[in-house]
Amino acid sequence: MTELPPCPECREPYAYEQGALLVCPMCGHEWTAADQAAEAESQGITDAYGTPLADGDTVTVVKDLKVKGSSLVVKVGTKVKNIRLADGFGGHDIDCKIDGIGPMQLKSEFVRRS
After folding, report:
1. What per-residue confidence (pLDDT) applies to 95?
2. Model-level pTM?
3. Residue 88 · residue 39 · CB < 8 Å
């Protein structure tokens, strides 16, 4: 028996096959495996090493980053938990909260997935 992916809408693991479609009994969403693969490719946000990123991931900073408007610096090796992917302004595509600094946006090219 093959393992079916969770529903892309509600993330419930109860999907079942109905012909060529996958159906979620919890929210009623229907999709195909090809739709899901195309959606994953269209997301396209990757870390500095090409690993795809997702909401909720933990990342590590790979370069010292100066914080604009202050004298603070985000040091190499700083772990950032529970990131959110966003269509950010100026290439900043990660929304996060860094301990000791606060909420900020990062560019995915300066982090790696942990």
Report:
1. 93
2. 0.61
3. no
| Distance from C-alpha of 29 to C-alpha of 111, rounded to nearest angstrom | 34
Distance CA 109, CA 114 (A): 14
Tell me, what's the pLDDT at 13? 87
pLDDT of amino acid 45: 87
HSE, CB side, 13 Å, CA atoms: give it for residue 102: 4
Sheet holding 111-113, edge to edge: 79-80, 59-61, 111-113
Question: How buried is residue 21: exposed, middle or buried, by Cβ count under 10 Å (0-12/13-18/19+)?
Answer: middle
Residues of the chain with pLDDT under 50: none
- Give the per-residue pLDDT at 4: 83
Of 73, 71, 85, the C-alpha closest to 113 is 85
Q: Are 74 and 101 in contact (CB under 8 A)?
A: yes
Give the tokens for residue 19: 């012909």
Phi and psi for 37 in degrees, rounded to 5?
Answer: -65, -40
Which amino acid, one-letter code, is at 47?
Answer: D
Per-residue confidence (pLDDT) for residue 31, from 0 to 100 = 86
